[in-house]
Amino acid sequence: MRRIIVVGSQGSGKTSLALKLGRKLGLPVVHLDVLYWRPGWTPSDTAGFRVRVAEAIAGDEWVVDGSFSGLAFDLTLARAELLVVIERPRWLCQWRILWRSAFDRDTTRPDLPEGCPEQFDWKLMREAWRYNTERMPVIEAERMQYGADVPVVRLSNDRDIVNFLDSISVD
Predict the structure, then answer these.
(1) pTM attached to this predicted model
(2) Residue 11 belongs to what H/E stretch?
(3) Local structure of residue 64 (DSSP, 8 states)
């Protein structure tokens, strides 16, 4: 496995898992948020974002952090060898988002673009709460359309994640 996508709700732990996979397998990690958001949390234009994603995944080795379904998931799925879906309880994702917004405000994170500090955001909370009913169906539909043959691993708790990481061998 040299091309892996990690998806899940905000606060599910997808960035942490993507970074661990990248370290273990010696793969670069592509944070889609960094490619999409401009300073001040201003969204990118779709065409420019898609070009940046295509360039970031042009190589044969990467871990992609996020899906951006409807904007770029088709690009990453078309080249992926594995899709990892983190399915955490929404209360846990909400708690993690609140924790980050309260205590990680001055922390530099690799998944946050320059000029986009951690902050509390009701929209983000609402999106995380509705992720299973609004975003997952879109992700699943795109998966069937653009990557039905891509194997899927579903992880729902810390034990699943540890076991998954332990099961991966470095080629």
Answers:
(1) 0.91
(2) none
(3) E
